[in-house]
Amino acid sequence: xxxxxxxxxxxxxxxxxxxxxxxxxxxxxxxxxxxxxxxxxxxxxxxxxxxxxxxxxxxxxxxxxxxxxxxxxxxxxxxxxxxxxxxxxxxxxxxxxxxxxxxxxxxxxxxxxxxxxxx
Amino acid sequence: xxxxxxxxxxxxxxxxxxxxxxxxxxxxxxxxxxxxxxxxxxxxxxxxxxxxxxxxxxxxxxxxxxxxxxxxxxxxxxxxxxxxxxxxxxxxxxxxxxxxxxxxxxxxxxx
Lengths: 119, 111
What we know:
heterodimer; A: mainly beta; globular; B: mainly beta
């Protein structure tokens, strides 16, 4: 149990366009999901906490109007990068806590990530 | 100073050797500790989860937690080339809290 998927796995877009990334918990429900950003050879940087049925909580320095998060159901959160620019190119990863996996309560399980390249 | 410190490596070992990884942390409020393995361009995969001080073993992996010293370790026995990856320690304070990550250690196991 505790499988998290992401779609797409890789996206290339032109500067100025918007890109939507989906994060799904496949075999469990998640009232909370987390969105991370990772640059090459660096650790994960938490961007925001996605809350089902309410507004996301953004980390300091993350523009909420640029990175729109919608957690419309207990199994789906989306991250939309609006008006993307080359500096937004990165690896975006979501995670969701679950007690149904091999870890303990609220262990976070990660999606496979989405590589965004903005030309 | 970062809340969680982890040597970035790279750590290069011959196949069959023991890989020793560790993290130190500064906030005694951290109660739950995890080790993740991340292959290049993939999401992190949970390896070990521990709560109390002491050792926890799972196959070739052993996780150690020393809360008094604020120090956690991961040991990989009989290392294989497929163990080559970045290993991230992570911890959180209470259920529902966000994870705090170490910077990750890159490990290379040479055949």
